[in-house]
Design a protein that fits this description.
The chain is α/β, with parallel strands linked by helices. The protein has a single domain, classed as Rossmann fold (3-Layer(aba) Sandwich). Helix content is 34%, strand content 23%. Strands 1-2-4-3-5-6-7-8 form an 8-stranded mixed sheet, with helices on both faces. Strand 1 and strand 2 form a beta hairpin. It is globular and about 45 Å long.
C-alpha cells in the first residue's frame, strides 16, 4: 500500500512524499531520501521502499525541491537539510501509531540525513538510526575532496551499505572516515558492487539476489534498532 503525503514547504507548493505502509501495525518507520540524479519514483527507490514494506518496515520517501521542480542540479545543502527537517516534522505529526524513526537515503540523500543528525544545534529526538546506501565520501576520481567534516559530531547508530568498487568511496576510505564518528557503525560491504550495488556478470550471483541481501540486512537492522529503542523507553517509564 502506498499513499501520498503533502509536506508543507515554506510558501511554495508542498513537497510530495510517499508512504509505504507495512502490512502489520509497526512501531518502526524508515524515512529515505533519494540520490542526486534520480528521485523517489526511480526503480531503486521504489523497489527499496516496497522491499522494506514487505519486511514489516513502514517506509516514507520524498523528493527534494529541485527534483520535484524538474531541475537537474541539486539544491544547496542548507535547502536539502531544511527539506529533510520539514519531512521529519510532518511524518512525526501524521504517522499513527507513533513510530521510532530511522532515517537515511541513497548517496546524497543519506549524506544530507547525516548532516542533519550531526548538527549539534538540531538534535532530533526519536531518531534511533541512520542508514546510508552508498556513502558519497568524495567525487569519483577526487579522493582529496572528502565529505567528512561533520562526522565527528555524528552520534546516531549507523548502518553503512557500500559497494566494494564504489568510485565515490572504497571500503577502506569510508571505514577510515567513519572511524571519526562517535556513533556505533555497522557495515554491509557488497562484493563487486558499485555505487548502486550493481555487480558484474562475473560476480557469480544475480543482481536480484544481491539486492535481496541488502534489503534483508537493512530491514533486520532497522527493526532491531526500533525494537531496542522501544524497549529502553518502556524500561525508563515510572
Amino acid at each position: 500500500m502506498c499513499e501520498e503525503l503533502m509536506v508543507p514547504w515554506r510558501d511554495e507548493s508542498p513537497l510530495v512524499a510517499r508512504q509505504f505502509s507495512a502490512d502489520v501495525t509497526a512501531s518502526s518507520c524508515l524515512v529515505l531520501a533519494h540520490g542526486a540524479g534520480a528521485g523517489q519514483r526511480s526503480p531503486f527507490m521504489s523497489g527499496f521502499a516496497e522491499a522494506m514494506r514487505s519486511r514489516g518496515v513502514t517506509t516514507v520517501t520524498f523528493d527534494f525541491p529541485y527534483m520535484q521542480q524538474g531541475r537537474r542540479v541539486p539544491d544547496r545543502a542548507p535547502v536539502l537539510e531544511r527539506a529533510w527537517r520539514a519531512v521529519l516534522a510532518h511524518v512525526r505529526s501524521t504517522l499513527a501509531p507513533p513510530a521510532r524513526l530511522v532515517i537515511g537515503g541513497k548517496s546524497m540523500g543519506g549524506r544530507m540525513a547525516s548532516h542533519v543528525l550531526g548538527d549539534a544545534a538540531d538534535r532530533l529526538e526519536g531518531i534511533v538510526g541512520l542508514v546510508l546506501l552508498g556513502y558519497p565520501l568524495h567525487p569519483p576520481g577526487q579522493p582529496d575532496r572528502l565529505r567528512d567534516a561533520h562526522l565527528p559530531a555524528l552520534e546516531t547508530p549507523t548502518l553503512v551499505v557500500q559497494g566494494e568498487h564504489d568510485t565515490f568511496g572504497t571500503e577502506d576510505e569510508v571505514r577510515r572516515a567513519f572511524a571519526k564518528a562517535p556513533a556505533p557503525v555497522a557495515w554491509l560491504i557488497v562484493p563487486g558492487g558499485d555505487h548502486s550495488f550493481k555487480v558484474p556478470r562475473s560476480a557469480g550471483t544475480s543482481q536480484a539476489d544481491v539486492l535481496r541481501g541488502v534489503h534483508d540486512t537493512v530491514a533486520t537492522w532497522v527493526l532491531a534498532r526500533t525494537a531496542s529503542a522501544t524497549t529502553m523507553g518502556e524500561h525508563q517509564r515510572p
